[in-house]
């Protein structure tokens, strides 16, 4: 099976992938499953890495289906960074790869309740960045010192972001964050907030009318003024709950992808501003 899949991928690579000059440019070839992992690899690796993101901008990563050319990229990669349990198609393809070149970031720290959204906690992402640096340093020993230095710089930036969230959310009139999808458990737990989600970890889950009414009652009883929806998901569910209790709806971005010009830090700081406004923080 592995040989057959590799053969299909190789045919696709020869048909339309990057040419030999790009493939042999001396950089470490990294495949990242979705944006936050791409961000970490690029920040830590700098000009010593060439990173391919399997999930295109604006696409929902849970629903990813791999093209033959992407399977070829997995075969050719020096390092594949992914999060097991988040993208079934990626997990299936990873099972056919050399385990020595794959890095499952879910193993850096234990997951909470099988929730994969670890990157929304800057402290956890810093730990992932540190481990990514070690894998890249092993793949490129000549640049190991520079890679580790960049990892230290990223770690410091993430610690600074953590401090901004701690300070910004320390004194708020409300502590409940109502979301359409249960994606923000790590973020809310880190900063002493309570997530109230209309649906569970699966963004495609359709809640029943009673479930929506229950969440609306909790939101009304706790004085919630904002119902959050995600950037890659329809706002209809959040708008329904918001109308039910006379609240407004707003975006809280799970950072599964970014638009042009945005980065992990710009989106996370926009999330902080949205939370401060919704929670009435001083």
Automatic annotation (TrEMBL):
Any Pfam family hit: ZnuA
PROSITE patterns: PROKAR_LIPOPROTEIN
Entry coiled-coil feature ranges: none
The protein, known as: Zinc ABC transporter substrate-binding protein
Transmembrane segments: none
SUPFAM superfamilies to which the protein is assigned, alphabetical: Helical backbone' metal receptor
Protein's UniProt keywords contain Signal: yes
Keywords assigned: Signal, Transport
Signal peptide start and end residues: 1-23
Gene3D superfamilies: Nitrogenase molybdenum iron protein domain
Family from the record: Belongs to the bacterial solute-binding protein 9 family.
Calcium among keywords: no
